[in-house]
Amino acid sequence: MTAAYPDQPWRGVVIAEGLRDPRIINNLRVVDAHITAADLPVDEEGTRGRWHLYWLDAAPQDIDLIQAHTLHAWYAHFWTGNQLAVVYDDARFDVSRDDQSTWEPAISHGLRQGIAREWLDFPTDDTTGELESGSA
Description:
alpha+beta
């Protein structure tokens, strides 16, 4: 997946609540952080709360580490150049950052895991996508 840009860092967005052990973020290069408004789903038991989003600069092995710690029904995504990588606990999708028609397999996988479609927007900038729109 990451072979096309071996020397460039990947920028990524990770939600701490979607990791088995969010402390792994402490060992990565965090470039920005955002805490959402309350009332977003936190777990499969119906708990609601805030999400802690972290923008990272990641090497390929960091992406592997994030994927290994990603919980079911969560994902992280990373981009470099024209590549966009979406990682779930059980799958990884390498798609075109600029061609949303290539995103459908990653979106479909997220939907099958129970992720709301509006959260499968994979923003590749410093925005929080649909998280602040009240669509949770």
